[in-house]
Amino acid sequence: MASIRQNKVSSLLQKELATFFQRESKTYFGGALISVTVVRVSSDLSVAKVYLSIFARENREEIFRFVDSQTAQIRYHLGKVIGKQLRIIPELHFYYDDSLDYAEKIDNLLK
């Protein structure tokens, strides 16, 4: 069960990361749409698990690997944006969220 503070921090991180990916999509990610589906923060607020959905026809794995390699720069950007609201900017761990792919697969099977 997440505390109220964890929920507030996770929603703040989700909002700011979504804004970052929307703004920098064309520059860094070749115009691919990257959606932040879920952010889960540890109880001490030092680690955040960020689940991403990548909407691109090809190169999903390559885009995800690039995002994962840019973790330090993304965390630095978060520090500049929300540094006054949090004492410690959480360490980011990115995970690929394949729930939409799974739902599409099930939908195709049912048709």
The coarse overall form would be globular
How do the strands line up in the largest sheet?
A: 1-2-3
The H-and-E topology, N to C, reads as HEEHHEH
Task: Find the count of extended strands (DSSP E, 2+ residues).
Answer: 3
Look at the structure and give the mean pLDDT. Answer: 89
Percentage of residues in DSSP E strands: 15-25%
Radius of gyration from the alpha-carbon trace, in angstroms: 15 Å
Summarize the structure.
With 111 residues, the protein is an alpha+beta fold.
Describe this structure in words.
It is a single chain. The protein is α+β, with helices and mostly antiparallel strands. It has helices spanning 4-28, 60-69, 71-82, 99-110, and strands spanning 33-41, 47-55, 91-96. The chain has a 3-stranded mixed beta sheet. A hairpin with a 5-residue loop joins β1 and β2 (47-55). α1 crosses α3 (71-82).
List the topology elements.
Layout: H1 4-28, E1 33-41, E2 47-55, H2 60-69, H3 71-82, E3 91-96, H4 99-110
Parallel strand pairs: 2-3
Antiparallel strand pairs: 1-2
Helix pairs in contact: 1-3
Defining key terms:
4 helices, 53% helix, 111 residues, three-stranded mixed sheet, alpha+beta
